[in-house]
Amino acid sequence: MLRFYKREISPVLPTSCRYVPTCSEYSMEAYKRYGVVKGTVLTAWRFCRCNPLGGYGYDPPRWFGEASPREEELDD
């Protein structure tokens, strides 16, 4: 379903995602990394944050309380 959206629907819509990676890329990565249940929770949480009053910028999928990749690099 996500691949269909990225291939058929996304190219027709204007670019509007406030984050990198985009919400659909985030969702695909979350499902691959965390599985169906956690991937669904993370995707829903991302959709809630992706709005004009939400944040923006680099936001890779990570489970709650997990260090971001940038924080891990600083610790090394």
From TrEMBL:
Output the superkingdom of the source species.
Eukaryota
- One of its Pfam families is YidD
Spell out the protein name for this chain. Answer: Membrane protein insertion efficiency factor
Q: Which organism is it from?
A: Lotus japonicus
